[in-house]
Amino acid sequence: MRYKRILLKLSGEALMGKRQYGIDPERLHDYAEEIKSLVDAQVQIGIVIGGGNIFRGLQGTSDGMDRVQGDYMGMLATVINSLALQAELETMGVKTAILAGFQIGPVAELMSRRKAIEYLEQGRVVFISGGTGNPYFTTDTASVLRGVEIRADVFLKGTRVDGIYTADPEKHPDALKFDRITFEEAYQKNLKIMDLTAFTMCRENNLPVVVFNMNEKGNLMKVVKGDDIGTLVSN
């Protein structure tokens, strides 16, 4: 395996599958199988899931809601998604743990770097939910922060697109895909990979990013093995 410890970032929208809202059980099962294959290969896995399939803080703000209140609702949505994928993994016999950026009683422990690393070394899949625990930070920024904290070898951004393109390939069929690109080149080309705070944090902490299609069976294992799929962003 090229990577021994990963931080996997999944979007909440990805859990919708073919639905318009919420969680698709079939997609949840597929993701759990992909993750279990890495557990069986003794890869240490931290996971951060967005909450956009349930509630987006910025959407609430655009509808007139207070930004802070909306962000906290979005953070709670990430906890719900983590609980859902945790439940699916545990039916497969995978040991897990959920940590959160804020106190949330019996469903998650408060996030600490030491606790997260301890669980990873025990072979558990560690969900880190609740964002940073503070409003005004995106899930991208929270997930990169957690990747740096747990000293992940790589930040894996699982999407429905097979990498980074010169433009949105779903809207521009002639867009060109990058196989490898540096952080500096991505800045210069103004590529929208993740928000600027998250992207800068990856660059400053020398945390490479791989953007890949999580919805294609076997891709997660291929990325971790080091196969040439998706797009690698590094210094």
Task: Give a nutshell description of this structure.
This protein has 235 residues and is α/β, with parallel strands linked by helices. Helix content is 38%, strand content 20%. The chain is globular and about 50 Å long.
Features:
Carbamate kinase; two-stranded antiparallel sheet; 38% helix; globular
Element layout with pairings:
Elements lengths: L4 E6 L14 H16 L3 E6 L7 H6 L4 H25 L4 E5 L8 E2 L2 H9 L3 E5 L9 H11 L4 E6 L4 E2 L11 E2 L1 E3 H7 L6 H9 L4 E5 L5 H7 L5 E4 L1
Parallel strand pairs: 1-2, 1-6, 2-5, 3-4, 3-5, 6-10, 9-11
Antiparallel strand pairs: 7-8, 10-11
Description:
The protein has about 240 residues and is α/β, with parallel strands linked by helices. The protein has one domain: Acetylglutamate kinase-like (Carbamate kinase), CATH 3.40.1160. The chain is built from eight helices and eleven strands. It has helices at about 25-40, 55-60, 65-90, 115-120, 140-150, 185-190, 195-205, 220-225, and strands spanning about 5-10, 45-50, 95-100, 110, 125-130, 155-160, 165, 175-180, 180, 210-215, 230-235. The strands form two sheets. Strands 4-3-5-2-1-6-10-11-9 form a nine-stranded mixed sheet, with helices on both faces. A two-stranded antiparallel ribbon has the order 7-8. Helix 1 (about 25-40) packs across helix 3 (about 65-90), helix 1 (about 25-40) packs parallel to helix 8 and helix 5 runs parallel beside helix 7. The radius of gyration is 17 Å and the shape is globular.
